[in-house]
Amino acid sequence: MTNKDYLKDISEIKSIMNKSSRFISLSGLSGIIAGIYALIGAFLANYIIVSYQSSGTTISLLPISYLEYLLVGIALLVLILSTLTAFIFSSRKAKKSGEKLWDPTTKRLLINFSIPLFTGGLFSIILYQYGLIGLIAPTTLIFYGLACVNASKYTLGDIRYLGLLNICIGLIATQFIGYGLYFWALGFGILHIIYGTVLYNKYDKK
After folding, report:
1. Contact at 8 Å (CB) between 145 and 165?
2. Which candidate, 139, 146, 141, places its Cα nearest to that of 122?
3. Which residues have C-beta within 8 Å of that of residue 115, sequence separation ≥ 6?
4. In contact, 23 and 105? CB cutoff 8 Å
5. Angle of helix 191-199 relative to helix 28-53, nearest 10 degrees?
6. Beta-carbon neighbour count of residue 16 at 10 Å?
7. Does a structural domain hold residue 173?
8. Parent domain of 94
9. What are the φ and ψ backbone dihedral angles of 22, each rounded to 5 degrees?
10. Single pTM value for the model
């Protein structure tokens, strides 16, 4: 065998090992769509807040608790739609490439992603409990970023950079209390669209 044959074999073995230890069915399109969901959610939330602050509107007549329920509902809807979209597109990509969607690697990915994510969610509830609402948006960005970094070793390494950028955006947002919605739109919206586009061009087109 020539050196080229050895190098080819080593490359193939490395590729097989990488596929067995990493979840590689993440879809760039799902990231783009999730970013669009987030931007629409941010727009609706901003509209509700502005309408609430304006006198003479129907929304301004609602109790503050109703406003909070509406905002939480929008955030949950964005999360649910993004999760479903990621599942659908990942299933299609896995089926197309002849790989299993659910295996031990997927389980490790979800566990490592969920721990920081749910911790951040519970911490956000505590912040709300003590009236520290201005810190909720930065907190969700920071913990989501930590979740991405923590899960990156079980999936495409590019997600690590998405996580680090969200952490940075979240930390900056702590210095601009009252503008959290704009930072939320930047991190979960625009950044996801950029990340999804890069992912799509790098992996999905192959």
Report:
1. yes
2. 139
3. 147, 150
4. yes
5. 170
6. 10
7. yes
8. 27-204
9. -135, 145
10. 0.80
Q: Would the pLDDT of 13 be above 80? A: no
Q: What is the DSSP track for 109-135?
A: HHHHHHHHHHHHHHHHHHHHHTT-GGG
Contact call for residues 21 and 81 (beta carbons, < 8 A): no
Residue 18 lies in a domain: no
Name the H helices within 22-155: 28-53, 64-96, 104-129, 136-151
User: Does 96 fall in a domain?
Assistant: yes
Of 142, 154, 129, the residue nearest 188 (C-alpha)? 142
Count of structural domains, the chain: 1
User: Residue 69: inside a domain, yes or no?
Assistant: yes
What type of residue is 7? L
pLDDT at 190 over 90: yes
Torsion of Cα atoms, 13 then 15 then 18 then 19, to 10°: -110
Q: Mean pLDDT across the chain, nearest whole number?
A: 81
**pLDDT tens-digit readout, 95-138:** 776 666 677 777 888 889 899 999 999 999 999 889 898 899 99
